[in-house]
Give the backbone structure.
Amino acid sequence: MASCSTGELGGGTNVAQEFDDARFTGHQLLAAAKASLGELSPLEAVMKLLGMVNAAPDFGGHPTLINGCSDLFVAVFGDSGRHAYSAGGMGLPPMGITFEIEAILLEKPKEHCRYR
């Protein structure tokens, strides 16, 4: 999911506001998962987040921004929401967005599935 805002971090964009936008993006990711699965209870864990941030070369707060989404997943799923994540800078993002976050979520095995 992409952010709703545009601009480059470290170039005048408000990091605190972008943290809140990252949390909102986390809500969007959960809504997409719920739309796909019908509910969130089939999710077993959050495996990984990847955050790509539109940032000036001297900006080093990529993880701080992505923590907005990361913290939400831990709040929603508890220990199952703890995950690995990568956060880095990108140049020339689509439509000038401030950041993009991808999530890898683990679905519980179906009852009829004999492999685990």
The longest strand covers residues 43-54. The mean pLDDT is 89. The chain has two helices and three strands. Residues 15-107 form a domain with the 60s Ribosomal Protein L30; Chain: A; fold (CATH 3.30.1330.40).
